[in-house]
């Protein structure tokens, strides 16, 4: 029912010898039957469309398909009848032969059998194939060939195809920026495609490839499709493991005293053959074994059960280590791919597969610093200057001889109105003072949350969550005390606790100042405390009129 390729459909005319322009020459066309050559079934694939040619005052017909002709390729006979309108009606007929040709309406697709049927992945051992070799399912003896077939429901040139590797769509896992992607080639052979290598594939020049297999037919217009085949290059196990590249390989580890079950990890060796390999895959991973070959071998042994664990533990020490007896020990540890036990050495020799381990016995320290409050609340006003101390951080450690240091975590501003400092709005000075580190002019509201970390000398760490609020005059409540400023200042925490209990909002004292007379002189024994309150459920300061009411 459509024009194809811009061509005009055939015009089929019948001739009538009667007088032109009369009903005797008014011709109507119809199809009596449609048979596939060699068969008698009437298929009804076509109908005759009658067209009046006003220029010549005649009529003709054109054939139109009555249904989609997909899958109906072949030669057909059509009995076309022309009938006039006279009395009696007379007709004539002719048999037309029509060939329904193939259209390139199917895309060629890869079809995989054998080892590729369930998963498009193969493994090849490095250095196994020579240039020009055909790639097999594996590099084991008697490995099967890859079955890469191509399916296309079309025929003729529409089914003919070429296949190759689309290098632009393919990817590789290179080593030091080098890969061998271009050394793989896909060629057509018979009804399928074959994968070849054009050079020796080395795992140190590429670990893994995702090859984009490409097939394209020769129809007009051509159709094409892609599939990805993963190629994993496995080891030939040719490089030994090492701790360091050159010089004396040294490391210091720590083990607590008084603990018979204490363990410590030491430097994990590097095996170049195992880079990007799966430890659970025997084909890509080479086992690495550790051996204690010198030092205080009577008190230490390797962790685990198979000498493949880079850890040490105690032996023959049911009470654990005693720092007051021996503060440190030495161990010499070798690494190898050889599962047999390595011979001992009596002195330190510079070699990259031996680690000289110093074990320092730690004084037991199993308590991190503890903060007095789980949440530390602080605040500042628009009028405060950069550098103002807004809180003193307090944490204690029950362990002896501890030095506590503090650090701040990531800052997060919430519900702000105005410009905030995003780099370092607060900092620690003088060991434990929380300092305002920007000028807050124009910042009308909001609060900042962050963690304050406390670290002891062994880096045991705990934290409190800090909430620092922006306080304006609408939230700051002045309270007069009949006490001197020194006495009031020393009772700041008590004042905060009492007011918090009474008003059920967290009270924060902003400042204390001596009360002044109308002449501006300080009034002895009178102190003004400026405070504000925080509604912690809403994460916002409470207006002072709410407190007053």
From TrEMBL:
InterPro entries: Cadherin-like_dom (IPR002126), Cadherin-like_sf (IPR015919), Cadherin_CS (IPR020894), Protocadherin/Cadherin-CA (IPR050174). It is found in: Membrane. Keywords: Calcium, Glycoprotein, Membrane, Repeat, Transmembrane, Transmembrane helix. It is a single-pass membrane protein. GO terms for molecular function: calcium ion binding. GO terms for cellular component: plasma membrane. Residues 1-110, 144-243, 255-371 form the Cadherin domain. GO terms for biological process: homophilic cell adhesion via plasma membrane adhesion molecules. CDD domains: Cadherin_repeat. PANTHER family: CADHERIN-3, CADHERIN-87A. This is Putative cadherin-23-like. It comes from Penaeus vannamei.
């Amino acid at each position: 029912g459509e024009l194809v390729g811009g061509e005009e459909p055939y015009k089929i005319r019948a001739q009538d010898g009667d007088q032109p322009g009369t009903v005797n020459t008014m011709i109507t066309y119809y199809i009596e039957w449609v048979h596939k050559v060699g068969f008698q079934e009437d298929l009804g694939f076509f109908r005759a469309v009658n067209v009046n040619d006003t220029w010549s005052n005649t009529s003709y017909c054109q054939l139109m398909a009555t249904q989609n002709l997909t899958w109906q390729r072949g030669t057909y006979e059509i009995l076309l009848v022309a009938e006039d309108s006279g009395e009696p009606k007379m007709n004539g007929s002719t048999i037309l032969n029509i060939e329904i040709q193939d259209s390139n309406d199917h895309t060629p697709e890869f079809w995989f059998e054998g080892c590729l049927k369930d998963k498009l992945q193969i493994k090849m051992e490095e250095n196994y194939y020579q240039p020009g070799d055909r790639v097999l399912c594996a590099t084991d003896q008697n490995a099967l060939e890859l079955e890469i077939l191509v399916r296309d429901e079309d025929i003729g040139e529409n089914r003919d195809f070429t296949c190759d590797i689309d290098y632009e769509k393919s990817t590789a896992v290179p080593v030091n920026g080098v890969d061998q992607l271009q050394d793989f080639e896909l060629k057509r052979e018979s009804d399928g495609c074959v994968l070849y290598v054009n050079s020796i594939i080395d795992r140190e020049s590429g670990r893994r490839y995702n090859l984009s297999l490409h097939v394209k037919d020769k129809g007009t217009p051509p159709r094409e499709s892609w599939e990805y085949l993963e190629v994993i290059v496995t080891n030939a196990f040719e490089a030994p493991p090492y701790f360091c590249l050159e010089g004396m390989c040294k490391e210091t580890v720590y083990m607590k005293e008084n603990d018979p079950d204490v363990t410590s990890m030491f430097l994990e060796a590097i095996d170049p053959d195992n880079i990007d390999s799966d430890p659970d895959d025997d084909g890509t991973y080479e086992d690495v074994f550790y051996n204690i070959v010198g030092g205080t071998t009577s008190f230490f042994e390797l962790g685990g059960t198979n000498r493949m664990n880079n850890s040490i533990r105690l032996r023959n020490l049911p009470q654990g280590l005693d720092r007051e007896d021996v503060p440190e020990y030495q161990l010499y540890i070798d690494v190898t791919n050889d599962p047999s036990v390595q011979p001992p050495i009596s002195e330190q020799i510079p070699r990259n597969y031996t680690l000289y381990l110093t074990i320092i016995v730690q004084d037991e320290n199993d308590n991190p610093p503890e903060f007095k409050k789980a949440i530390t609340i602080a605040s500042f006003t628009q009028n405060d200057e950069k550098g103002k101390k807004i809180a003193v951080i307090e944490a204690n450690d029950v362990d002896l001889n501890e030095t506590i240091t503090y650090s701040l975590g990531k800052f997060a501003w919430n519900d702000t109105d105005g410009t905030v400092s995003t780099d370092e709005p607060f900092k620690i000075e003088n060991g434990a003072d929380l300092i305002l580190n920007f000028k807050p002019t124009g910042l009308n509201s909001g609060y900042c949350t962050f963690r304050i970390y406390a670290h002891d000398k062994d880096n045991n760490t705990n934290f409190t969550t800090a909430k620092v609020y922006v306080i304006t005059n609408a939230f700051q409540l002045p309270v007069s005390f009949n006490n001197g400023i020194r006495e009031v200042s020393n009772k700041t925490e008590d004042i905060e606790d009492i007011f918090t209990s009474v008003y059920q909002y967290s009270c924060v004292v902003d400042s204390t100042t001596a009360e002044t007379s109308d002449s501006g002189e300080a009034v002895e024994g009178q102190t003004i405390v400026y405070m504000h309150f925080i509604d912690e459920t809403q994460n916002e300061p409470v207006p002072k009129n709410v407190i007053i009411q």
